[in-house]
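Tokens for chain A. Residues wanted.
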């Protein structure tokens, strides 16, 4: 039995001036048809900002900014008097690459630091930076059954937990660890953490939406100040200069993961704090430890199947939702299996497929 995910995460916006992160980097891009403003959300060595000017003639009949989380780049495309154009921004080692995919035959001019360069199809502009891209993390991916169009203006209006959390996790899982602050919008993140620890399944979804509304602008571009004055920030809040809003994205992603999987003393907890809004879903390529990965699926708010892929011989114990008392363990897809009680240790052999199903109350 295979548990797969084919959903692609590519949120987009048609609004000029949309802010979004270049995936796997600290760089926030605010994109207009004829201007790109780049700002680092890390405060190392002081605030860094860069500006690039695409010489694109307007007015445009179409304009889209897309954050491609599958290929880890931003894609900008549209159409105007000069015809169709598309280019992408990708973070690399100590540089940002602007790559022109399509444009008019004569090319498009881009100005950076008072120097203008004409790019033709498949040519690129290198923007040097002092910051390196974040390392690529494991391929864990989650989906909660929502397949609506990822137009971010509509996503913000719907405020749906099952729609927002998977994209948040996909973008934030690459962000390095950062201590959670008790100031600004990060206070809402700390509140989410406390609710998860208290297993407040009925409230945690709403708390994540509150954090989403106050702590992000554009397409999941984090901020520590409640600049929309929604009433979430206290008057005496002092945000340290060295604080980075990336904590909301990275630590938020780790909290989202902890809703589905937690490593505890009594064993590996599966769906330990499932929000009431997440009736069904899948979480694939989950790294339970260095030598064990898993895929899991649930429906009607209860675990249905857990597939294990051990690389070494090992013993492991699982805990599930409190209503689950037993399950069937099969070795391979055709094995008949045996029934085990929750809490019993399972001995796994290297490079062997194990399937846990038929969960009983």
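Reply:
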């Amino acid at each position: 039995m295979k548990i797969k995910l084919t959903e692609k995460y590519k949120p987009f916006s048609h609004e000029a001036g949309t802010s979004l992160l270049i995936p796997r980097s600290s760089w926030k891009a605010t994109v207009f048809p004829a201007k790109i403003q780049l700002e680092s959300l890390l405060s190392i060595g002081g605030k860094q900002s860069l500006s690039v000017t695409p010489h694109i003639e307007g007015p445009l009949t179409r304009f889209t900014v897309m954050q491609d989380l599958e290929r880890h780049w931003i894609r900008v495309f549209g159409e105007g008097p000069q015809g169709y154009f598309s280019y992408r921004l990708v973070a690399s080692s100590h540089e940002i690459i602007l790559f022109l995919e399509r444009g008019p035959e004569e090319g498009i001019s881009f100005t950076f630091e008072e120097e203008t360069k004409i790019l033709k199809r498949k040519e690129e502009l290198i923007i040097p930076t002092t910051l390196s891209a974040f390392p690529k993390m494991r391929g864990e991916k989650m989906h909660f059954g929502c397949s609506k169009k990822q137009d971010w203006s509509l996503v913000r209006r719907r405020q749906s937990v099952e729609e927002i959390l998977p994209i948040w996790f996909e973008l934030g899982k690459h962000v390095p660890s950062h201590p959670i602050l008790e100031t600004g919008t990060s206070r809402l993140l700390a509140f989410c953490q406390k609710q998860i620890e208290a297993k407040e399944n009925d409230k945690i979804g709403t708390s994540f939406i509150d954090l989403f509304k106050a702590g992000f602008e554009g397409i999941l571009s984090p901020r520590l100040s409640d600049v929309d004055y929604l009433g979430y920030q206290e008057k005496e809040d002092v945000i340290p200069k060295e604080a980075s809003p990336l904590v909301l994205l990275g630590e938020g992603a780790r909290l989202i993961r902890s809703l589905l999987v937690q490593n505890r003393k009594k064993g590996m907890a599966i769906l330990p704090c499932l929000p009431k809004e997440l009736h069904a879903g899948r979480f694939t390529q989950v790294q339970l430890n260095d030598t064990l990965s898993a895929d899991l699926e649930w429906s009607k708010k209860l675990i249905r199947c857990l597939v294990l892929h051990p690389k070494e011989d090992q013993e492991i114990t699982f805990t599930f939702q409190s209503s689950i008392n037993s399950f069937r363990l099969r070795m391979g897809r055709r094995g008949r299996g045996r029934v085990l009680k929750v809490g019993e240790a399972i001995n796994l052999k290297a490079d062997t497929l194990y399937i846990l199903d038929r969960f009983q109350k």
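The first helix runs from residue 152 to 158. The two ends are 23 Å apart (CA to CA).
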